[in-house]
Amino acid sequence: MDAAVAGGEISQQTKPPPPELAMVARAVQRLVTRNDAVVAVTVSSGGGGGEREEGMAAFEAAKGAPAPRIGVAQYLERVHRYAGLEPECYVVAYAYVDMAAHRRPAAAVASRNVHRLLLACLLVASKVLDDFHHNNAFFARVGGVSNAEMNKLELELLAVLEFEVSVSHRVYELYRAHLEKESRRDCGGGGGGLLVGGAAERPERSAVDGGDRRTPNGSVALDWMRSQAMTTTTTTAAANGVRRHSSSPSR
């Protein structure tokens, strides 16, 4: 068990949040706001009973419980305050959110599941990218879930992604460039599109081939990008000297 977790205490990090955190927070929050509105309309019209797909239901808040009140940006800042993740982890976590939404299009990323989904994505991204990473018990305490639930969330995410969690450098740069573009758009007050989210402007075809096909989740199905991103974990990770991903619950 990490020293920071031992004795029931976790220490705060001193380094400020990286710009990648803010970019991801804005992109995901916009998606959540849009999908919350869609869910509200669906429920009010008497629908919405069968949208929970296997593999994503685990990220939902308990039945009857309200969605967490903390916003996406505040939640990511809390994780960073204690975990001190590298900037790349936030971009890769965003890629996982996009891939998960593409694979489970009926399970919209919304207020009731976004916090647990992001926590699992950050945990897996940290394990894939960092030689030394915090264990599941640490992430559970920081994220406000039990250790058993953290382990379950990790396994559910891996099942959704089919354990294909390696992201190539080219795809990483495409995701980061997209986040930067949308961040500049936000600063200019122009809104903008998302890889996962509403009526988005299509990325340039020089970067994405045929990226204008819409999916039921309201996302732009960037099949070329995702096919590049979803390379086999065991082969790519071994080639890069990265340990094969495995669940690492606290003993």
TrEMBL record:
Record has Signal as a keyword: no
Ranges for region Disordered: 186-251
GO biological process: cell division
Superkingdom of this protein's organism: Eukaryota
Protein name: Cyclin
Keyword ATP-binding attributed: no
Composition-biased stretches (Basic residues): 242-251
Keywords attached to this entry: Cell cycle, Cell division
Biased segments, Basic and acidic residues type: 201-215
Species classification: Eukaryota, Viridiplantae, Streptophyta, Embryophyta, Tracheophyta
Origin species: Zizania palustris (Northern wild rice)
A single GO molecular function term of this UniProt record: protein kinase binding
